[in-house]
Amino acid sequence: MQSYFWVILHGSLLTVGVSLLALLVSVLFGLAGAAAKLSGKPVLVGLATLYSTIIRGIPDLVLMLLVFYGGTIGINTLLEKMGSEATVDIDPFMAGVLTIGFIYGAYMTETFRGAILSIPKGQMEAAWAFGMSRFQTFIRITLPQMVRYALPGFTNNWLVLIKATALVSLIGLQEMTYLAKQASAATRSPFIFFMFTGALFLIYTSVSLFVLKKINARYSLGTKRGQL
Amino acid sequence: MKKILLAAAITAMCATAFAAGKDLKVAIDATYEPFTFKTADGKPTGFDVDIANALCEEIKRTCVFVEQPWDGMIPGLLAKKYDVIISSMSITADRLKQVDFTDKYYNTPSRVVLKKDVKYTGPESIKGKKIGVLKASTQEKYALGELKTKGVEVVSYDAQDQVYLDIKAGRLDGTVADILEVGGGFLSKPGGEAYELKGDELYIPKYFGGGAGVALRKGQGELKTQISAAIKAIRANGKYKTINDKYFKFDVYGK
User: Fold this and answer.
1) What is the pTM of this model?
2) Which residues of B touch A75 (CB under 8 A)?
3) Among A3, A83, A198, A215, which one is least packed by beta carbons within 10 Å?
4) Which of B3, B5, B6, B14 to mutate to test the interface with A (most CBs of A within 10 A)?
């Protein structure tokens, strides 16, 4: 019985790995999406709106199945049509990271867009007046200030993303929820393993919250907090 | 030419596997003790796993087990993640629309389970009682088709374990379940002492299908013939019996 706990603990490393990499992917998608939405160019705005509307409107589970199985079946059928004997096997780890990252990128898009809009436009105009390029303005002026505005929404997205990693078991990755299910099936004592897994998730999210609080404090330097 | 180049490009981008190799990729969902489950050191084991190994030996290939959760079982097969499913999958008409099956390798009956003091002489005798079944299972089909029509209240659950929990909590009067599942998971456990199997063994193919078979993609006719022959062979040469006796007290091959 005890060694099942070790297996689950080991599986938690996969959960951490998938979630951190997916976070990176989602931030990249989010920044790109927010930039596109605020670019004012009709094509980019349209694409970004399509992205955030469709992805946020479809359940994660359905998207995961569509991307992973739909994608593989599609490519394999294509290969068959072309007379190739080979079959394609998408790596579940990468598929999980990319799918979750892609999904949460849509939420990040909205979070970042809101954060950027909260920065007075005059600051960017001033930067342009100093001769900074659009990219320089973004790195030097917009990014450091938007962090503070984006953090509350970002924290929410991150917590939901962590819990969404439980879905990757569906595509064959053995993260801790699936391992807990296996352990409880083998021993027929479900509660103990699911409580253990729940506790692991809670530890992970608590640590995240602590770190994000520190980051928030760092980026709030020099700002007055509202008080009553 | 272009097509070949494109095919080569797609192939190069992804890890590839050739279906006709020596390995036979077998999908299992290791959450169904004693058929497929994992030991504490992470090895797949159980009746299905042993049978799979015996079948592989018979057709001179090596079984490589791929773990796959139940929800993605058939999609994964269609996506060619593995060659066959040997994971207690019942042969049903619905599944036959999407995949192909070999002959069955076991067929255990289901039965009605009720409190010992309840008199059961057929569905009519438990009119008004509440019976819990697993959602989308063969037992649910039977309960809806034979029990509900006779006035029995049928409640569907996401997992068979939840049915047992609700029987213990007094919200249900009983269940319809595979005799092995209910024997190992409920009757022999604390809280199950007051219950027993009632009525006849249920084999009705309309509801229960034709037992568990090896699932494969349509168009794998040659492999299907090989495996069906291998099942016959291990039944004949005693390997099946050895595996059977390791897990069960009676022959699960069934009728």
Assistant:
1) 0.74
2) 10, 14
3) A83
4) B14
